[in-house]
Amino acid sequence: MNGKPLDFIPFIFIGIDDTTPSVDEPPLIDLADVNIAHYRLDADHKHGLHFTGLPTPVISGYTPPEGSSDLYIGSTAAWVFPDPNAKASYLEFAGQGLSAIKEEKANLENQMAILGARLLASEKKATETSQTAQIHRAGESSVLSAIANTISSGLTWALNVFSQWGGSQDECSVEINTEFMPPEVSPQELTAWLQAWQSGAPGFSDQGLFDLLQKRELIASGVTLEDEQERISSKEPRLIGE
């Protein structure tokens, strides 16, 4: 590099938690293990449903005559037994055992939803508070944030090596965005902010409220307070009731 021998190999490992060559456990390994268990239960469930739905005739009290042991089923065949106590029926499997398999499948699906497969679980109908929703999603994105930080560290090292190789002494850095879920704002929060701004509470000046709205992505990042105020002042006034 720059006419001097290298004292290191210009190669970087990027794992899950660090940039060492050690092999990390895949972050979705738990989900994969539960998915395999779900696959097995699903196969058992469908196998049981197959046999539950097949009609199986059962005959009791009938001894077939010698040389004739075939019985035919259908609209063109009739069974006539000499013994009046002989009975013919269809064996019916109630399938109570399948209920336990079905319940366990549902449990595994919920477990997979907790582990990250949110598409397998239906959304809750009840309204979730904003704080609860943020805590719920923070745990889901924590693993992704750790991976993103590791990638940022590895890319920063590689980019600096590339820059030095080209003869530059400038420090380079790469930072991947770790905000995977847009922060939600509840109507109650927004009302409280406006009331605090109107009452002149500390931290809720025009710029303070604007920064808070921009941080929660209600205002685009490239917009300034002056831009927003100009937009508001240029808006034609409207009469109440229009």
Describe this structure in words.
The chain has 242 residues and is mostly helical. The chain has helices at 29-52, 96-115, 130-165, 187-198, 206-215, 225-234; strands at 56-60, 87-91. A two-stranded antiparallel ribbon has the order 1-2. The protein starts with 28 loop residues before the first helix and ends in an 8-residue tail after the last helix.
What is the element string, with H for helices and E for strands? HEEHHHHH
Query: Which regions are unreliable across 5 or more consecutive residues at pLDDT < 50?
Result: 119-128
Biggest sheet statistics: 2 strands, antiparallel
Which structural category do the helix and sheet elements fall into? mainly alpha
Counting DSSP H or I runs of 4 or more residues, the number of helices is 6
Name the helicity range: 40-55%
Report mean pLDDT, rounded to a whole number: 81
Task: Tell me the strand order in the biggest sheet.
Answer: 1-2
Number of strands: 2
How large is the radius of gyration? 35 Å
Overall form: elongated
Into which percentage range does the β-strand content fall? under 5%
Give the terminus-to-terminus CA distance: 71 Å
Primary descriptors:
242 residues; mainly alpha; 6 helices; elongated
Précis, in short:
The protein has helices at 29-52, 96-115, 130-165, 187-198, 206-215, 225-234; strands at residues 56-60, 87-91.
Outline the secondary-structure elements.
Layout: H1 29-52, E1 56-60, E2 87-91, H2 96-115, H3 130-165, H4 187-198, H5 206-215, H6 225-234
Antiparallel strand pairs: 1-2
Helix pairs in contact: 1-2
